[in-house]
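User: I'm new to structure prediction. If I give you an amino acid sequence, what do you actually give back? Let's try with this one:
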Amino acid sequence: MAAKTDGAPPLAVSLPAIAPLAVSLGDPAGVGPELFAQAWADRREAGLAPFFAVGGAQVLVAAARSRGIDLPIARIAAPAEAAAVFDSAFPVLGDEDAQPSFGQPDGDGAALALHSLTRAAALALSGEAGAIVTGPIAKSKLAEIGFVQPGQTEFLADACGVPHTDAVMMLAGPNLRTVPLTVHVALSAVPALLTRELIERKARIVAAALARDFGLSPARIAITGLNPHAGEDGRMGREEIDTIAPSIAALAGEGLAVTGPHPADALFAAHEREKFDVALCMYHDQALIPIKTLDFDAGVNVTLGLPIVRTSPDHGTAFGIAGKGVASAGATIAALRMAGDCASRRLLTEKTA
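Assistant: Good question. You get back a string of structure tokens that encode the predicted 3D arrangement of the chain. For your 353 residues, that looks like this:
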């Protein structure tokens, strides 16, 4: 099967240059800083667009050292300076920092993580940064210093003035893209949350984002069922009949390339994955189990529906292996590459609109 890579078809024209990407470090006690350092070390082979970190210079140097990387740092006063120094040093904007403490998150590290996220988001919104790539955070530590959102996606939605429900999480890898329609809720709560309005609204956001940022128009959207075998004509539940199928019919009537409800147990086989560009799934594990099985070390969390491009590696802080030099940088490199590609494609779309 052909790999989807970033999921976009090849373009007949070159993508335009973008402003450097802003990196928010995530929790400095986790693997985020060392993986961004590794990504910079692999920048040429990976073909990455210039990026810079917001704060954390000494954290980055220590994290790089844990992987055997001698990381040169270039202090920059503005994002525009990053491109000129990127080839020879890792650009860092701002003096905010913390003491390296691999695997031991603390309040100072959480403060650096929140500062880095806040400023990086502002730079992306102002256009000074081409996109934002977020490192993994420890939500419990951030909550101790006043972080009130459930996660970074909701934080960025608030920063952008977008309702949380319109900030859609898509997981994307070389082989698959999935969107969970419900995310961090108990499985028992899912049936009541699945409404026609939810399915149709999120499907429209996904279709628009895949056209704008991935060059997929019309995007082929496969919508799963909720129940085993997609309900088997009502014998295993009526959600497919009463809610999901009517939503698909309405979306198809609007011109969207939607199909389903598909039984989720068969949808992700190799020969089936060639038939769609993204799968809209009813709940968290229905979407994340297949993407993490197929693309664990290359999975990217992309937030759709925002006025800025945001990506993140699809893994957590991994405190248990932080500073040991064993964490894979694959997902971080993929997130940086996807952010650059999506930002360039979005800019091209805006210029040709």
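You can read the tokens as a compact description of the fold. Here is one thing that stands out. The chain has a mean pLDDT of 94.
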